[in-house]
């Protein structure tokens, strides 16, 4: 959902964007790359950090883009024109989602370097690239059906999307180096702190450099985005999960960072106003939880029945799967807190009412 209070944030670069295949200097030793995506959310931001490992000068890549010919071609142009003749020394992934990990295998093979990411997301990616997780296949369709999505055409399309993840992440590297919460990584002579976040992905890693030249930096991944709220979904592999509570608790950890931190998000533009954005995201979810509670108080309600309450725009199938996951996440948060009761009807659908 678009941020109605976006004017409270500041975009230091204005409307300037790197074009595909280009890299824009953000700070000394930090470059911004932007790749296209085949969704309504049509881009991902990727980052180049000047680095030195074992005396070798080069670059660290943070996040990869999906596996596609266009993304590979744009990376090749970046390599030819924007690495200053230096190699890539390592690849980092904030989390396992396809737009962040899709080309990790290609990049690490091309540059003979190691992938760095959290253990939870690495192992889930290995599983997902040979099957699917959450957004396609028979189990996903049955799960969404149990939460009120009954349109036969939509369910058939979801069943047909069993290759949703493998198409964009066909191969995951065989080995990796583990990133963990609180770990300090030296990149180019500066220390970057790993901050684990939960709810959007199982073990999302953001990277913060408080003493970066020019001011503190946060590569926030998908945990803090300026214009849209981060997707927080329940999926079929963990149907009773409470990712929304995990996500909101994770946001509190970023409040310890300096207020003038330049946030480098995966979607949207680099911005300052981290503390304001966290307040906005908390307020957004408080409002959504109130709307869900009101709807369930009016009558027992399933997740599909909340789509029109939580999302005012028309949704395509891809957006509907994420919207269903979000609706279930808000219901589960209230249910597991004890505010709602969950009951499964004779039709197999879960409906929620006040406790």
UniProtKB/TrEMBL annotation:
Keywords: Hydrolase. Its EC number is 3.-.-.-. GO terms for molecular function: hydrolase activity. Residues 43-267 form the Metallo-beta-lactamase domain. Gene3D superfamilies: Ribonuclease Z/Hydroxyacylglutathione hydrolase-like (3.60.15.10), Winged helix-like DNA-binding domain superfamily/Winged helix DNA-binding domain (1.10.10.10). It holds the Pfam family Lactamase_B. The keyword Hydrolase applies. This is MBL fold metallo-hydrolase. It comes from Pelomonas baiyunensis.
């Amino acid at each position: 959902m678009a941020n109605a209070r976006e004017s409270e944030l500041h975009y230091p670069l204005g409307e300037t964007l790197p074009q595909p295949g280009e890299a824009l200097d953000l700070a000394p030793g930090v470059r911004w790359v932007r790749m296209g995506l085949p969704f309504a959310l049509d881009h991902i931001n990727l980052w180049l950090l000047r680095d030195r490992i074992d005396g070798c000068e080069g670059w660290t890549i943070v996040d990869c883009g999906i596996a596609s010919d266009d993304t590979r071609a744009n990376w090749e142009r970046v390599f030819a024109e924007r690495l200053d003749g230096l190699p890539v020394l390592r690849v980092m992934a904030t989390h396992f989602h396809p737009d962040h990990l899709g080309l990790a295998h290609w990049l690490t093979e091309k540059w003979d370097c190691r992938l760095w990411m959290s253990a939870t997301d690495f192992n889930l990616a290995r599983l997902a690239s040979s099957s699917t997780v959450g957004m396609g296949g028979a189990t996903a369709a049955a799960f969404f059906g149990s939460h009120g999505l009954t349109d036969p055409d939509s369910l058939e399309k979801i069943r047909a999307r069993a290759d949703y993840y493998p198409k964009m992440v066909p191969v995951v590297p065989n080995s990796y180096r583990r990133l963990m919460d609180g770990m300090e990584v030296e990149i180019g002579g500066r220390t970057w702190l790993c901050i684990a976040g939960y709810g959007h992905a199982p073990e999302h890693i953001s990277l913060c450099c408080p003493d970066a030249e020019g001011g503190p930096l946060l590569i926030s991944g998908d945990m803090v985005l300026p214009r849209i709220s981060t997707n927080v979904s329940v999926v079929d592999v963990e149907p009773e999960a409470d990712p929304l509570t995990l996500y909101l608790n994770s946001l509190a950890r970023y409040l310890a960072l300096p207020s003038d931190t330049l946030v480098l998000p995966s979607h949207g533009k680099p911005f300052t106003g981290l503390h304001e954005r966290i307040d906005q995201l908390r307020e957004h979810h408080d409002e959504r939880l109130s709307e869900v509670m009101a709807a369930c108080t009016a009558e027992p309600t399933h997740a599909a029945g909340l789509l029109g309450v939580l999302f005012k725009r028309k949704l395509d199938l891809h957006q509907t799967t994420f919207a269903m996951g979000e609706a279930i996440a808000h219901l589960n948060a209230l249910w597991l807190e004890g505010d709602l009761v969950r009951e499964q009807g004779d039709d197999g659908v879960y409906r929620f009412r006040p406790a």
